[in-house]
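**Sequence, structure tokens**
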Amino acid sequence: MENIEVFVRQWDHYMELGVVICVAIAILILLYHEYKVMQIKDYKEKYDYVNLNEVRYFWYAVIAIVVAIGFIANSFGTEKIITHGMLWFYVRIFITASFIVIGYVAFYSMVRIYYPRFVEKRLVKLRNKPRLSPEGNEMRKLSEEEEDAHLNAEQIAEEASGVHAIDYDVWLDEKTGYKKIEKYESYLHAEQCPNCGFYTFKITKEELIDKPTEISGGLLLKHYRCDYCSHREARETKLAPLSKSRV
């Protein structure tokens, strides 16, 4: 009995230590991500980094917290184990492991379904944050109508094609005439699902139904699928006629 008590007490001590380590790891992961974001000065580069990494780092931090909760749960019922024997120790391990698996699945769904909404808000802020020119002047983001005058023929055709949802932002320093063109691939973003309302609606395939010519436009069919509710939908996108007049 005494040996069992010593072993279980030591086990609980290691579980408490594991909780502290896992919580510290979760905090360090989030702090590291935010530090990396702060280190990036260019808003477009910051946008790309957040878009590619934020959900992933947040998920790593959540995993660390789930494991910490498992360690906490694995230190409950110590007195019962000491009184009734090691069978209850193994029962506790089994129950704890089961809850960790359940927590992993539950939190994975929450992160995958709910967190992209917050990331999207951050991305919108970064995309619209006023840029500064090399001279330090605040630049103005041009409207869709204005920006075509600053794009070349290839960029205009790419944006108008609708294929892979390419979009360009043009920022202009009206004092010096300096301009900055940023390319965004909306194809990589999830949209709000019309069925379940979560930001898990993604393009899975694109079909060119009618190829655009210099005389007439074309038609692109985009196939969407929701990662959460599996809702499927096909949307038509009209493509602008090819143009040779722009230089």
Remarks:
- The first strand starts at residue 140 and ends at 141.
- Residues 19 and 69 are 7 Å apart (CA to CA).
- The chain has three domains: 2-120, 131-187, 190-247.
